[in-house]
Amino acid sequence: MSAVTAGNGSRGGVVKVESREVTRAEVEEFLYREAQLLDEWRLDEWFTLFEPDGRLEVPTTDWAGWDATTAGYFVADDYELIRARVKRLKSRKAHAENPHSRTHRMVSNVILLEAGAETVWITANFVIHRYRDGGAYTYVGRYEHVLKVEPDGLRFRVRRAVPVMESMDPGARLSFIL
Amino acid sequence: MAQQTPVRPLGAPGDGAMIDEDWEALRFRVHRSAYREPGVFAEEIARIWGHTWLYLGHETEIPKAGDFKTRTLGGRPLIFCRDADGEVRVFFNSCTHRGTVLCRHSEGNTKFFQCFYHAWAFSNSGELAALPGDDAYPDDPAFRASMALRQVPRLQIHEGFVFIAFDPDVPDLLTHLGPAAHYMSLTAKIGERGMTTLPGVQLYSVKGNWKLAVENAMDGYHFAPTHNTFVGYLRETGFAVTDDDQYAYDLGGGHGLLVLTGHNGRIGMVWEPRFGEEEKERTAVKRRELEARLGPELAAEVADASRILFVFPNLLLFDLEALTIRQLEPVAADRTDVRAWQFVEVGEPESVRALRIKTMVSFVGPGGLATPDDIEAYEAVQRGIVATADAADPAHDWSDMSRGMANEKQGNQGRSIDEGAMRSFWRQWAHVVGASTSVAGAPPAGAPASGPAAAEAGE
């Protein structure tokens, strides 16, 4: 799965996953709340947005759709590694984030691509501004998420942030959540 | 408070030396202008990058005829390609007509490179293939021949690792590599069916001098404090990390090696609990395969210890949990582009490949649990060392790398948690760049061990 194209599952920003309707507004709300948790470094709460077995992925900037099990990535975390990452980032010994970066996320262009048996595939664009050590960095890309649809809300099955920059340059330390 | 009396007055050595070595005081200092000054950087590009073998890439990045990658080395744009006959070629990425960058894609497959500016076209073996309006040029085959793509003066390949030089008079590649060639060969022997680079190249840039990246790789001293959170993660997954029995080797020519026994597990070689039971079984099978193919001694050398190899000036091979090839490209005194490839066994099972990638990127690379702290460290050095530039007391503008010098003076094998590997790098650097070195006292007699085998032979 390379560059995603608008699927035919979404009509007017609504898809049906079994008998449950998922609207674009619900997905937007989920993404906005996630952005807020990350900008406020509330990582324990952020971790609850994943279903058990959820994955966190950041492909490299030369990505052409390769799976995280067959090509180099920046981040290819299974659930236990996401947990380890959160624990690390909360430690004052995570030197790359002590003090924390100031981040400011903008999420837009949310599209519901396709409904699966119990999931919805979505894409969105992001711009993340990051400030640290007197430097200002901008990260631009798109999200390609697989969200598990649950009665009470949504959870990440795959949370994938695809950078569109030619290189992770500068501000290479991906020690915050992209 | 008692004032400590230095053996020789501190301050800038009289001749403006960049390296200050004192075997009586057991002191080794590097002047911080070496990381800061654009003039030093220009000398490095001219004297090192202009006249030394440079690591360009691995043959497996361009497996098929017509495959190409574009890449910049020492600031010069290059085309790294495999021509129609399957030969590896490296051209300056610059049209011979007016100098336009000829190929503006980062990778692909092509028979011809055509300049968009005036439509001159070149075959992937470099001949001028099309010259629009050629009736206005001399009717002379020599003219066309003179307009062939410019190849880099030297190109040699060791175990698939492609090196080039911009100086035709460099010694043979194997002479340049010396004992480092053997350690590159060890990584190439891991796979029964060979090794290959994977797509998914980590391209990133750090705001630090390239030598800080070399120091960081050759510096076992920083591991425990800098990677506290990663060491904690390893402990939680059931693996104790030790820095015992870990050594540093000066391979000559600026090349360095850390041999890290008991550092971490290695996929297929040294099992640790986080790799899972399936991998435990496979590790035993893999060891038998290595022994059958390479013999027990070589198999042990390949499998038993992690290694970090630095090949002067721009290649690092991290043979750790898994293998990573890292290339350094200096951009400015305070900026370095880094490129990193996963280097894997051809034909390994899917589950192993997945484990390898997960394990490696969880540690190494900008998104890992460890590398961001390394980058933080050397970016912090770059920011910090301006503090003492032109300081009131010139003795303040030096970085200290004397750890383990007493041990070195006694002729003992250098430990990875000391700074001996960094000292040997700096000595070679000063030699190649032509920077002045001030040496006081008597350095230890006898050449340093050039590798674990040499060390054993010397005992």
From TrEMBL, chain B:
It comes from the Bacteria. Keywords: 2Fe-2S, Dioxygenase, Iron, Iron-sulfur, Metal-binding, NAD, Oxidoreductase. GO terms for molecular function: 2 iron, 2 sulfur cluster binding; dioxygenase activity; iron ion binding; monooxygenase activity; oxidoreductase activity, acting on paired donors, with incorporation or reduction of molecular oxygen. PANTHER family: 3-PHENYLPROPIONATE_CINNAMIC ACID DIOXYGENASE SUBUNIT ALPHA (PTHR43756:SF1), CHOLINE MONOOXYGENASE, CHLOROPLASTIC (PTHR43756). Belongs to the bacterial ring-hydroxylating dioxygenase alpha subunit family. This is Rieske 2Fe-2S domain-containing protein. It comes from Micromonospora carbonacea.
